[in-house]
Structures are given as C-alpha cells and as structure tokens.
Amino acid sequence: MFQRKRKRKAEKLAVAAGSAMEEGDIETAVGLADAATKAYDRSGKAWFIHAQVMQLAGQYEAALESYATAKTCEPDKAALAIYNQGKVYEELQQWDQAIKAFDTVVELDPEDTDAWVNRGVALAELDRHLEAIASYDRALKLSPGDVDAWANKGNSLQVAGRYDDAVACYTAAINIDPENLAGHYGLCESLYHQEQYEESVDFAKNALKLDPTLAPAWVFKAIALSQQGHNRHALEAIEKAAALEPESPETWNNRGEILGLLNRLDEAEKSFERALDLDEKYAAGWFGIARIRCFRGAHEAALDCFDDYFRLAPETDALMPAAKAAYKLCRDTLEARELEKPDSEK
To answer: What is the pTM of this model?
Structure first.
C-alpha cells in the first residue's frame, strides 16, 4: 500500500513537471521532476518525464541517465527509451552514438519509422549518404507518406549530385505537405544546380514565405537572380542573407560576386575581405580579390592572391578551371607589361 502511494505521488509530480515543461517554465519543471524521482525511484513514467525535462533544459548527460533508468524500470518500453537517447545524442552531435542507439531500436522494433528516419539523418551527418538513403527507403516502405523521410532522402541525393532524384523526393514531400519548408528549400537548391534558375527563385520565394529568416534561401534566391542578370534584385536578397547570417563567409563572398557584376569594385573587394576575415582559409574569397586586383592592374598583388587560392582549394573545386584561366591571363599580362618597359625601368 505504502509503495503504491509513493508511486502515485511520484507520477503526480511527474505529470505536473510535464505541464510546467509544456508551459515553458523549465525551472519549475526541473524541480518537480527531481522531486518525482526522489518520491519513488522505480516509476518508469517519472523517469521518462524526468529525462524529457532534463533534455529540454540542456542537461543532456542527466537525460541520458534518466532514459537508461526508465528502460530498467519499464523493460517493455526499452525501444522508446533508447530512441530518446538517440535523439539526445543527435542534439549533442554525437552521430556515432546516435547511430548505435537507432540501430538498437530497429533491431527491437523493425517497423519503427521514426528510428529509420533518424538513423538516416545521423548517417548523413557523417557523409554516409548511401547508407542514409537506404535507411530512408526502409522508412518509406513502412510509411510512404512520411514527409521527413522524403525530404531527408532528397538532401542525401542532392549531396550525391543526383539532382533529378532529389527533385522527385522534394516534390513528393510538398505533395504530401504543401507547407513543408525542407521540400521547398530543397527544390530551390536542386533546381539551381540544374541551372533552372527561374524555378529555383520561385521555390526560394516559397521557402521564404514559410520562413523569412531562412538565410540559405535568401542566398540561393540571390545567386539564381544573378545568373539571370537581375543583379540589383540579387543584391537586395544577398543583403538579407548577410543580415541574418553575418558570420557566413560564403554569404559575404556571394555578395562580393554580385557587387563585382554591378561594377561596384571597392564594395566587392571589401565583401571578399570580410569573407576572409571570417575564414582566412576560404579559398573562393582569395579568388574574388585576385580578379579585382588583376582587373585594376595590380597584377603582382593579384598573383599572390591566386597563389593563396591554389594553396587552399582542392583540384576538384568548381572554381579551379576559371581560376587557372584567370591566373594565366594575369601572369601573361604582367609579363607583357614587363617586356614593354624601357630597359632603364627593368
């Protein structure tokens, strides 16, 4: 009788903790959750709620321990406890541990769609995209209407350069949920890579209607507009991106490219410099400055910047062919000017 009273008290406290958590009162939720597990330390329900509260409070180690205790108290809910541990590992970006957790879940319950999806997400974070795609496929076999599985599969296909397949996945996602942000943004990016710039802009606009703070959508809107020659509108979009993500070297580099196309070279150079201030190993920034200095006749300074680009960029970099051509032109121009000088100036 006494044990039952303690259990009821603990679970009542745990429910109150859950209510406080839903209302955003984390401090109260933590206090009630702690009190619940002290009142009766063998209630799986109390430990589950305690773990959820700790997770929301950012106390991840405590959350992992509480889920482990919940699993011991309620072995029939082991898969749920381990799944939630996997989600904690995701928040900690401990992807190997997350994969192990989701592997265990799908061994216990091969029909757990969410576990297959989250397993795919963790694999993708480690660039194991073929395995991730296989995991999403397992989820979709179980639940063909799973929007997250479609969108995440699209992400992995896109990274693999399979843009047609990625477009099909993102399209499936927004057919199921017309307001799926990942689907609209994914289409914006994949269509850009397929050089379908007008369509890319359309889906960027869709994504931004759903989330006006999504900086990458502003970036793709900008560069897709620029590819169509709409550089003034492109500049407006890239300024939005820079305001939202001022610490992104890629955004400042794209801003420099657009300003260069508008012949605003001083501002362009400063934008490239800002990118390099944020990351001095950002190769594209060196290429941008090199072209401006070469255009202005500062060929020696330009060649130094080209050297930095070649030192940092892999041979497979998309800019490499253009960089080699620009470098040769800059070097040849400098050599020709040296030959034109009177002997007294050499």
So the answer is: 0.89
